[in-house]
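Extended Data, record Acetylornithine aminotransferase
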Amino acid sequence: MNDLTVTRQTFDEVMVPVFSPAAFVPDRGQGSRVWDTEGRDYIDFAGGIAVTALGHAHPALLDVLREQGGKLWHIGNGYTNEPVLRLAKRLEALTFADRAFFANSGAEANEAALKLARRVAFDRFGADKYEIVSFTQSFHGRTFFTVSVGGQPKYSEGFGPVPEGIRHLPYNDIEAAKAAIGAKTCAVIVEPVQGEGGVIPADPAFLRTLRELCDAHGAVLIFDEVQTGVGRTGHFYAYQGTDVTPDILTTAKALGNGFPIGAMLTTNELAAHFKVGVHGTTYGGNPLGAAIAEKVVELVSDPAVLAGVNARGEAIRAKLAALNERFGIFREVRGKGLLIGAELTDAWRGRAKDFLTAAAKRGVMMLIAGPDVLRFAPSLIMPMDDLNEGFARIEQAIEDVVGAEASVAADAAR
């Protein structure tokens, strides 16, 4: 038998190199702390990219995993199951939606939403109404369709011709939207807060304009809430903090707290255009994932949890303001709830990864949102002691980067 001892170097030897993971290998987690294979602890402000909204190894989720794991994992889409039906009822009770389609990821949820939008337009208006409007710097997944709809060309280039009928407009630009959305538009897809694009909240007037334009031109408005959903912004879904309701909403990430599950939520009227066999999935809506997600929805939708999101978000903003008073490295801090981006000043432009690496060495897991933005998306129930200790470590990490830069500058001046 081959030696199955593995290290971080093993990744470089056996995995397709589409990722560049950190130098340490996480081994276990509890709440907002993670321990690596060497036993070193880290405070987790990344949340698995806004996924582990209830932290690691949440006892109520472990109970559900054990119970459902002993009953039924998978049954196939020729049958339904009780957990997925309960999950659909919970989500529909919490939102505008009447119907749900379950998948395994945010990309698959967006794929379903975009296909539904085009099918609706085809059925209602014919083959000429097929254009999809998206926005620059948006991110909607890594399938070929969703990566083409996403507004970051670096992810779609080099794979051949992209699907036709996709337009990218500047985010938060009302006049550009008015000029572009018209008779051929079948759908507008927008993130209420652009996550990967730099943690940029949508202007309320911009969202209202999109709603008005979609209504005027018979187009479907899709909110991609894969990252903003399930409590992340302090509302169960971010649209509930606006005066705009979409026609379709996509959700994933935190929905399963790490168990792969995504969903497309919509109305009875639109759902009727997806007849039997028009779309499908093998694993989507499996009873194990649905049971876990049902418990996540129950726990996160508690008003006390949602109120705690805003309290923790304000605490992080205060910590970042204090750090900026000392170091002056942030141009802007923005976001909603516990999806926060700290954009670096011009002097530190392109250096976000350096701060990420320094934080890991000091025992903190963080994210970036492009080369210029530090992103924070921790557990919605992160203990304040962990938050405070984490920022003490982040301060040390910033000292390391700033100090190293000062040392290089001093050497150069000699």
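Summary. The CA atoms of residues 14 and 357 lie 23 Å apart.
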